[in-house]
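Hi, here's the filled form for the chain we discussed.

Project: internal
Contact: R.S.
Residues: 141
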Amino acid sequence: MQANDVRALKSAAIPTIAVGLVAVVVAALLAGGAGALGAAIAVAVVAVFFTLGLAAVTWAGRVSPQMMMLAAVLGYLVKVVLLMVLLSSFADATAFSPRAFGWSVIVCTLVWTIGEVRAFLKLKMLYVDPDTQVPGQGAPR
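And the returned structure, exactly as it came back:
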């Protein structure tokens, strides 16, 4: 991972873990141990899914911009489908609170997404290479 990608990961992961810990405490107060377990599982699921997604986009970015976009879109689709499958398969769980799991997934996903957007907006990346020579145009001025 490049330094920019590590910064984006930290900008998203740290707030998500902090909010996740708050979600675990709130779920414990509202639903007891089962709620805390559901919220903790949700935090772990979001952290793993989104870290793997960022790693895939980073790897694809080294291949080409088109691959990066494809990886981002497919990664988003896979995450949404897997989260839907997990939410539906855990609907009748008795070991932990499915409601705490669902709400924690939603909150942590929003926090992660906001953290990533904020990190990428703060990057000082050039959109064009100022030293590029255009064929037939001569040297840059």
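Let me know if anything looks off before we file it.
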